Amino acid sequence: MIGRLAGRLEYRAADHVLIDVRGVGYVVYVSDRVLAQLPGAGEAVALYTELLVREDILQLFGFPTLVEKEWHRLLTTVQGVGAKASLAILGALGPDALGRAVALGDWSAVAKAKGVGPKTAQRVVNELKDKAPSVMAMAATAPAMPAPEEDALIDEGDAPSAPASPAPRRAAARGNAAAQSEALSALSNLGYAPSDAAGAVAEAAGAAPQADTPTLIRAALRLLAPKE
């Protein structure tokens, strides 16, 4: 099983890239969102990968984080969602927005992905709602895009290229993921069901993307309070 690739990005296509790893080229399919985040040709790149094995084909799919890879794995367990449809959903929403959509049962957000109809979108939120809390919690501790090894980039004496990565944006997203995870844990300790807690935290985080842990907890508790 190929779970991770680190090397030099050789070229981009509409839905995939070619990564050279010590002279061996790997074709890796990625979402539109991931494609836009990757560096230019000739630069360092690293992706977590999922290998699809069929009788007539082997395909690699690439993800910048283990959380996104886990969402891909879960999405492809839903009837009617293949690997390409999963990439379309992740490309349209990203892992954080997908987590919120599933936790809140917002199938219309999932249906915005190209080629995903209302019935399939409803199956996604219905079948994955109970699994959303664990993936949302995973976002706080899972490593981000792995750093390419420098020795994988050395070719005929050339110095390795520095990876072009949007570090500040990833750091901010990671901070918000950590706050959501901590809020989920706190609500679970208070006795709230995981799916209810995840829905409240997702709604609170959607309203205040930069909120810290205490702010998210207070907002989620207000949402969970019995309505008079």
Automatic annotation (TrEMBL):
Its main location: cytoplasm. The RuvA-RuvB-RuvC complex processes Holliday junction (HJ) DNA during genetic recombination and DNA repair, while the RuvA-RuvB complex plays an important role in the rescue of blocked DNA replication forks via replication fork reversal (RFR). RuvA specifically binds to HJ cruciform DNA, conferring on it an open structure. The RuvB hexamer acts as an ATP-dependent pump, pulling dsDNA into and through the RuvAB complex. HJ branch migration allows RuvC to scan DNA until it finds its consensus sequence, where it cleaves and resolves the cruciform DNA. Residues 165-228 are annotated as: Domain III. The keyword Cell membrane does not apply. SMART domains: HhH1. Keywords: ATP-binding, Cytoplasm, DNA damage, DNA recombination, DNA repair, DNA-binding, Helicase, Hydrolase, Nucleotide-binding. Homotetramer. Forms an RuvA(8)-RuvB(12)-Holliday junction (HJ) complex. HJ DNA is sandwiched between 2 RuvA tetramers; dsDNA enters through RuvA and exits via RuvB. An RuvB hexamer assembles on each DNA strand where it exits the tetramer. Each RuvB hexamer is contacted by two RuvA subunits (via domain III) on 2 adjacent RuvB subunits; this complex drives branch migration. In the full resolvosome a probable DNA-RuvA(4)-RuvB(12)-RuvC(2) complex forms which resolves the HJ. This is Holliday junction branch migration complex subunit RuvA. CDD domains: UBA_RuvA_C (cd14332). The lineage of its organism: Bacteria, Pseudomonadati, Pseudomonadota, Alphaproteobacteria, Rhodobacterales. Residues 73-92, 108-127 form the Helix-hairpin-helix DNA-binding motif class domain.
